[in-house]
Design goal:
66% of the residues lie in helices and 7% in strands. With 793 residues, the protein is α+β, with helices and mostly antiparallel strands. The chain has a 5-stranded antiparallel beta sheet. Strands 8-10-9 form a 3-stranded antiparallel beta sheet, with helices on one face. A two-stranded antiparallel ribbon has the order 1-2. Helix 12 runs antiparallel to helix 13 and helix 25 crosses helix 26. It is elongated, with a radius of gyration of 44 Å. The N terminus is likely disordered.
């Protein structure tokens, strides 16, 4: 139990090599004992010659391994050790065969190209004798070249099938182990035996130590080993007490300091808070072993001290990260009381697991009845359930509300807390019914998963603190703000194998899944592997970046030196972008070796359905291509479409963005610009005509008015003299004589300003010349005014 926790933590943190080696010595069983188990279990595994890489798919080495595996697969009583040993050989052969399936691939491609060059066989079956002879020779050569790959594929399928059979058998055994019902630990019959077994283990350890002391003193070995043992003990005490407290105090003084790399430095010091005590535990174990006074069972207990102590140290460290002491609420934002309870319950669980592992080591070589064993383990499981129940309620508590800060709703922590409470109830209950293995398989992985989740939260907090800029808050926005989110997501993805190991998955299971992932998946007659995806992504990314680089060069360096207008330049840049992306996709698919010919029928059927569903989008896309080629409108043009008037700001694949004069954006589908009527005020050039209506009072001199209006129009700097402006007498209105000024402007974009300036000038000249600008007048005639007078009276 503790060793699994230690293995997961080492795989996650990966401490110092010396530390890993020291603790590994305590965790790895003796080689001689392993050899003894080998002799006792199952048939002998293949000799070392079978471990060499295969020479051919059909050689004798592979046949011996395959026959041995097939015989073992037919034996229901095959030992677990033998199955794992043969399975390892099968994995090696399968990997070799997977590589051999590509034998002669380049030569086969050349021969296929030669056969294709000869053309298809005529329908009549008659062709030139030389061609027929050459075709037959090439076909025979192709069959000979394809034979090794076909044999390798057959051997690969054979090895893969045997591996699947072994994995299914191992899974079946694990399931049977978990669902096997034994004696109930609550049966009073087993209570006395459980107490006697525990007392017997303690007594045996004590007797071994006492006998070792007497023998060591009599032989003088204890006196000679005592100085070295005392020195190691002093080192252990110094590391466990003084150095650990000094590092903790040093870290506390640095918490108030600011700096970009300060979170990294603080996290490194916190890791030292784990490494230093564990080194002290290793020194303590070496000190005790140096005395040379321990027997078989007591030696197992001493060897288990580092791994058991690691659980306590790790829980103390992790509790300080998740439920910190002091003013800071920590990453989860709990109040001070909740954090204190969280630290206490976490450390209590660790102490229970540590003490339980030491008792397991003491009872390891003592033969006990299954009912007695269950009666010993169940109280430990029940106490762990009670503590886990309390810890689940602590985790479910809402975070502390702080003014001015956003507090999470705590939905995820509520779910985790509920799962802890559920497992705390179910695991002891299941074990009480006799399913001890199932109860342990629920309780211990749940606690280890909780510890791993806490470790992931601590790492996520570190990533967040390192990436956050407390000085300039603008740096915490935009794309850079997504970096800690992506890193955290990657960390959680990489932690999935650790969760699988915690919940009973074997390393072989993970390697098998990785192998199948590397082999890819079949899509029609093609097989696409992650390597193909990676090749496609790299080639496409390079092609995309190259396309963007060339687009930038065209936009900034090449096209501005030509005589093309801005619309033409944008059309060339956009068209090159579409062409470059399409070519990049084609080259990437070809480079990855993805054969899409087998998907042609499926793609054709899907294209019909997609065509009906996306016909508007396709229509807009084609219209966008037409706009780029014909260029009826270009970026910067002043157009009017669908009652909307404004400047074209961007032409994309699907739509065109128009900025109106009130600074609002109108998104117009490209199909509307192609199929509907569009008025382009600035197509080709900026010259445009302005028409301005003027009315004067009846009785005014029309020739004088005409001359004044012509002079005003000709004097305006925006009006062109070729052709000259015209003043037209349009007719007799209801209350005025109507005139129009029609003039050609140099830049039609200034038409409104020009109208305003000409109107101002007309008002000044008419006032100076005494010409009246009439306004509408209406005479009202009353038919019977006498009736109104009578009503008033």
């Amino acid at each position: 139990m503790i060793r699994r926790l230690f293995l997961v933590a080492v795989l996650t943190l990966w401490p110092l090599p010396g530390l890993a080696q020291g603790i590994g010595d305590a965790a790895v069983p003796d080689t001689a004992a392993q050899d003894t188990v080998t002799d006792m279990q199952g048939p002998a595994a293949p000799d070392a010659s079978l471990q060499q890489p295969p020479v051919a798919p059909f050689d004798e080495g592979w046949e011996r391994v395959a026959r041995l595996a097939e015989d073992l697969a037919m034996r229901p009583d095959a030992s677990l050790f033998a199955v794992n040993r043969v399975r390892a050989d099968l994995v090696m052969w399968r990997d070799a065969f997977h590589l051999r399936t590509r034998d002669n691939a380049a030569r086969l491609a050349t021969v296929n190209a030669q056969i294709a060059a000869l053309g298809a066989v005529p329908e009549t079956g008659e062709e030139a004798p030389d061609v027929a002879t050459r075709r037959a020779a090439l076909a025979e050569q192709r069959r000979a070249l394809a034979a090794p790959g076909i044999l390798a594929a057959e051997a690969h399928a054979r090895a893969d099938g045997l591996i699947r059979e072994f994995d299914a058998r191992l899974l079946q055994r694990q399931t049977a182990e978990l669902t096997k019902r034994g004696p109930s630990p609550l049966n009073p019959v087993h209570l006395g035996g459980a107490v006697a077994a525990v007392w017997n283990a303690v007594s045996i350890v004590g007797v071994e130590i006492a006998a070792g002391l007497v023998q060591g003193v009599e032989s003088g070995r204890l006196q000679s080993n005592l100085p070295r043992a005392v020195a190691l003990f002093v080192v252990a005490v110094g590391l466990l007490w003084f150095v650990r407290r000094w590092i903790t105090t040093w870290r506390s003084t640095l918490e108030t300091r600011a700096g970009k790399l300060m979170p990294v430095w603080m996290f490194t010091l916190s890791l030292a808070q784990i490494a230093v005590p564990v080194l002290g535990l290793v020194a303590l174990r070496l000190s005790l072993e140096t005395l040379d006074i321990f027997g078989l069972r007591s030696s197992l207990v001493v060897a288990a001290i580092p791994s058991a102590g690691f659980a306590v140290v790790f829980a103390w460290w992790l509790g300080g990260r998740i439920f910190p002491s002091g003013v800071q609420a920590g990453y989860l934002g709990y109040d001070r009381g909740t954090r204190r309870l969280g630290r206490a319950y976490s450390l209590t669980l660790a102490w229970i697991m540590a003490i339980g592992s030491l008792f397991d080591a003491a009872l390891q070589t003592i033969e006990t009845d299954p009912g007695v064993r269950a009666a010993i383990e169940w109280p430990v499981l029940a106490v762990m359930g009670v503590v886990l129940w309390q810890l689940g309620h602590v985790i479910r508590r809402k975070p502390e509300e702080i003014e001015g800060q956003t507090v999470s709703q705590g939905r995820l922590r509520d779910l985790v807390g509920q799962l802890c409470i559920l497992i705390a109830v179910v695991a002891p209950l299941v074990a009480a019914l006799g399913y001890g293995a199932a109860g342990r398989a629920l309780m211990v992985p749940a606690i280890m998963s909780l510890a791993l989740i806490g470790l992931l939260l601590a790492i996520q907090r570190l990533v967040h603190d390192v990436s956050r800029d407390d000085i300039n808050d603008e740096n915490n926005k935009g794309a850079f703000a997504l970096l800690p989110v992506l890193i955290s997501f990657l960390i959680y993805i990489l932690s999935l194998p650790l969760f699988a190991l915690i919940w009973g998955a074997r390393v072989d299971d993970l390697e098998e899944q990785w192998t199948r992932f590397g082999e890819g998946f079949a899509l029609g007659e093609s097989r696409i592997s992650p390597g193909d995806f990676l090749t496609f992504a790299i080639v496409f990314a390079l092609g995309y970046l190259l396309t963007r680089f060339i687009q930038g060069s065209l936009r900034k360096s090449v096209l501005p030196r030509t005589r093309l207008d801005l619309g033409g330049q944008n059309a060339i840049v956009a068209g090159f972008g579409y062409l470059g992306i399409i070519l990049a996709a084609i080259i990437a698919i070809t480079s990855a070796g993805i054969d899409l010919s087998s998907l042609a029928i499926v793609a054709g059927a899907l294209s019909v359905g997609i065509g009906f569903g996306l016909q508007n989008i396709v229509s807009n896309f084609v219209s966008g291509i037409i706009l780029l080629i014909e260029r009826p409108v270009s970026e910067g043009d002043w157009i009017e479409v669908g009652g909307k008037m404004g400047y074209v700001r961007a032409i994309s694949v699907r739509s065109t963005r128009i900025e109106t004069f009130d600074r609002t954006d109108v998104i117009v589908p490209n199909a509307d610009l192609v199929s509907n009527q569009v008025i382009n005020w600035t197509r080709g050039n900026l010259i445009g005509r302005v028409i301005l209506s003027v009315g004067v009072a009846y009785g005014s001199d029309v020739d004088k008015v005409t001359n004044i209006l012509r002079e005003i129009a000709e004097a305006h700097p925006m009006v062109l003299m070729t052709p000259p402006p015209a003043v037209l007498f349009m007719g007799f209105g209801a209350s005025s004589l109507d005139f129009e000024i029609r003039a050609i402007l140099r830049d039609v974009n200034y038409i409104m300003n020009t109208k305003s300036e000409i109107n101002h000038e007309i008002a000044k000249r008419f006032a100076a010349e005494g010409i009246e600008i009439p306004f509408a007048q209406h005479d009202i005639w009353l038919r019977n005014p006498e009736a109104l007078k009578e009503s008033k009276a």
